Amino acid sequence: MIKKVVTGVYILAMAIMVSSFHQNQISASIARGKQVYNKVCLSCHMIDGGGVPNINPPLAQSSYVLGDKKRIIAIVLNGMTDRIAIDDEYYSNNMAPHSDLTDEEIANVLTYVRNSFGNKASAVTAAEVKVVRSMKK
Ligand code: HEC
What we know:
Helices cover 58% and strands 0% of the residues. It is built from 5 helices and no strands. The chain has helices spanning 2-45, 63-66, 69-78, 103-114, 126-135.
């Protein structure tokens, strides 16, 4: 009986440690991603992710940002020049490819974007970026 309790407490403690470790990893990724954002993306998408009307689309509450991770990873790697509606608006500027960024940097910046400006979505990992990068060759 005591053994069971001890094992139960042990498992619970491990679960808490693993989940807080995971949370710390995400916080670190968001902090590093913010630096990439400020250097590379801010000039167009603005400090609050609000974009510039009719020129650069907002990242705040964007269905792209909150949607399929592969699609936004591909946008950062390949840029975006399609004149398609983004949440019912059109934008005249082009986004250049940012394939010079590392898998880590792209994962971090997208994790930051998906968890800033009022957005809340799961983290992007370097492994996910690597898969999309390898598909584009
Ligand atoms: C030169 C200005 C510019 C820079 C720098 C830039 N973007 Fe963009 N971005 C755009 C434009 C313009 C579009 C839409 C292009 C279109 O409509 O074809 C876009 C589209 C997007 C989209 C999809 C649409 C949306 O609003 O959700 C995402 C996501 C995105 N950019 C993220 C980023 C990230 C992350 C960075 C930094 C690594 C970045 N962009 C850097 C101009 C820029």
